[in-house]
Write a structure and sequence with these properties.
Elements: H1 22-30, H2 34-37, H3 40-55, H4 71-77, H5 84-97, E1 118-121, E2 138-141, H6 143-149, E3 176-182, E4 188-194, H7 202-214, H8 217-239, H9 245-263, H10 268-278, H11 280-289
Antiparallel strand pairs: 1-2, 3-4
The structure holds zinc ion.
The site of zinc ion (ZN) has 9 residues, from helix 6.
Length: 290
Amino acid sequence: MKIKETMIKYPLYQFSINGETPFDVYKTAAHGDAILDAIEIQMESCYNDYENAVNSASVHNLSSHGFVDPEKEHLKKLYKSDCDIAKKIRLHHSTFTSTTKRVYNNKCPYCTLSEPNTIEHILPKEKYPEFAVHLYNLIPCCSKCNGHKSEAVRDHYRLPYTINFYYHDPEYCQFLEANCSIDPNGYPSFKYRLAFPKNADPTLTAIVTNHFNRLHLIKRYDEEVIKNYSEIELTIKTVCKGKSLNDALQYLKDYLSNINNDYGLNHHYVAMLRCMIGSPIYHAYLQSIL
Ligand SMILES: [Zn+2]
């Protein structure tokens, strides 16, 4: 299985929170509910399935257990946006998703654009109420991404619609590219696209493409870059005034190497800087503002 080679190498289930496994956390939440007490053995089996699915990067292919009311209703009711498990996941989140370099500055890992002000159920709780409070089924993200992802889980090739930040490594190769052109007003305009290297893992390539399509990321990055670029142009005009083109490019290269490590290879800001440094079209413009 190629997919495992590009998985993040952290054994999630060895990171327990205060010594608790995800099932311990569930049991604490369910404690005292007679309806849920009665299905504890089935729930333990569901949680074991989830653990195996995390370890084989296939959570999206889990089948729903098919709980119906009253169990379904009781399971769903365990989750509220301000419940203890939601608080726990917010605290726990940065510990391991920082490995993916997606949470710098407390941003949504799905888009890296906005604050993660909601908690997303990777397997939706309506169809999978058994995982409504499973720690690794919950991930903080922004309301836009949460809305775009909606109830979607997998496509007809049985591939997930979104990257699972608990095990897919979005840094496995460089795939986000920005291109520069000059608009009719003589001002630089940046457009993003996905550009995978020839040797990229085809499964991960398909998952990343699904992720970008589902969350409308290219369009959202194309909008975001307008503000980001005008800010950096102001800085360039201040810092590099009177300098040579080479000195200005060196300034951009130093800036890129400072942030590259924190932001990651496929961050929209990093891709914009790479384009500014590499594009002859941009160089001609840059020369004109020094
Ligand atoms: Zn987002």
